[in-house]
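Researcher: Structure prediction, please.
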Amino acid sequence: MGQLTMPATLRLSNTEQEALRQKCIEINKLLVRQGRMPIKDSELAHFILEKATPCAKVSASGDLTLELEV
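Model: Predicted structure follows.
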């Protein structure tokens, strides 16, 4: 009944794109050293969203935070 859906695209700022690209390069260097296949920037973005979304909270002061389990 009237299910809302999110847009299929997400616009990232240039800074966000560069941070994602740099992190992907860092991870891919380690993966290649381990003899594993590198990942794409989009795969990393999906992983981060999947893992971080449940950790997104609002503090008492109204600030967005990530409460990551250790």
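Model: Strands lie at 56-58, 64-66.
Researcher: Thanks, that helps.
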